[in-house]
Amino acid sequence: MRTLRIILFSLFGLLALVSLVAFGYYRSMEPRERAEFWYQYRKGRLQGDTQRQWFMGQAIKADPTFAQAYMQKSIAHTKRGDFATGMLLLNQAVDLEPVTYLGYRGYVKLYMLHDYKGALADYHRLDSLTPSFRDAPWSEDIYHVIGLAYMQLGDDANAMKYLDLADDPEAMGWVDDQVYLYRGMVQVRQGNYAVAITEFKKSIEANHFSDQYFHLAQAYFQVDSLPQGCTMLAEGQAQMAAGYVRSNAYYELPGQVYSSDFQELAAKYCGKE
Amino acid sequence: MYQRILSLLSLSFFALVWSFPEVGIAQNTVPHMINTKEKVGWIAFDPDLDDATFFLCDEYNIQEYYQVNPRYGEGSKDLRAYFESADFAWNFPDTFSGLLTVRFVINCQGETDRIRLTAVDAEYRSIDLPLDREAWKDLIKGMGPWVPGLVGGQRYDCYKHIVFRVKNGQLTDIIG
What we know:
The structure holds two protein chains of two kinds.
Chain A: H1 2-28, H2 31-39, H3 50-62, H4 67-79, H5 83-96, H6 98-112, H7 116-129, H8 142-153, H9 156-166, H10 169-172, H11 177-190, H12 193-206, H13 210-222, H14 226-241, H15 259-269
Chain B: H1 2-19, E1 63-64, H2 65-68, H3 76-85, E2 98-106, E3 112-121, E4 126-127, H4 133-141, E5 149-151, E6 154-156, E7 158-167, E8 170-175
Parallel strand pairs in B: 1-7
Antiparallel strand pairs in B: 2-3, 2-7, 3-4, 5-6, 7-8
């Protein structure tokens, strides 16, 4: 019994000593170091988990200028429809580090909120802050997403201006197939079907998603090329059946095509159900 | 006294172990069993608003829509078609421009309940809108069955939200 008492007291004493040392070390840290100390504990905890959010809250408390914590804390809220909280946090991140976080806020506004004017304001501001650098917000060429936002607003002139700028493989090392898809969609809107067909073909060369075949088929039907249109429609349906579908877990993509779209077009032009 | 010491030691040990950063596990678009009701976006059961008989396969592991991909018909296309053709009095105030978000639970059988409405203005600030919440509840439930979230042969309960974009009282976009 006496031995047990000694062991327990020793353990307690050791723990108390370790705690004191740790506390003293924490107190000696700079605010940013303390914030990073709390921030690292978010790892391994799922996005939206209350513990994860708490750790990021502690990081912000330790250093209210730690922009990364605001941005990370915002994500679960915006993904789950709590835009008041999410955007409040994200706005703080942007205020602190605009070059780092304008792109992400533009992405959220463009794809999740369909706030195209808001997205354009963010993207244009980001572009102006980095005059010698070709930004790639959330891994998309900034001119691609600016062009897309204009396209969604129905401003075809500006859409084509920026989508044309995005067609620059040297600048980014690649051109997203969706740049050609969106250029084609704008050309269709303008009634320039021959040009649209060229764009959709480029899009297919880059990536053979079912959507690109559907839009190409639609353009062929507009110039009365029924056999070619029906062939592209059948190819698109095959690609869809094989799983080559443009999709995103969080939101519908612009120009996204569904099985019923193929069926309706096939019934109208190709005599098929 | 020994009991107190043991309790304190246990607490300290637990805090030490709990505080260790775990190995990264985050892939956000697959289901995860977190075994808790409370998380960001949690909707607690409210006997005044919700159906007490609403079945949940696992209330401690309600996923998010992007983890398990529930579907309404073909997807967003059919969802928009439902609302665009619904005989529903939207009745947004003329002065309102912003977003109305409807968040709800789709259970593992494709049924919906725990419907909650929140609104933000054009600057994404939270606002209160005078809405007929019962009518909105009927509108969502009137959608009929969803294809529930299904991953690896298992059906999941999940949260889903639909966003209604409004400008000067007029519905301009449905995002879901």
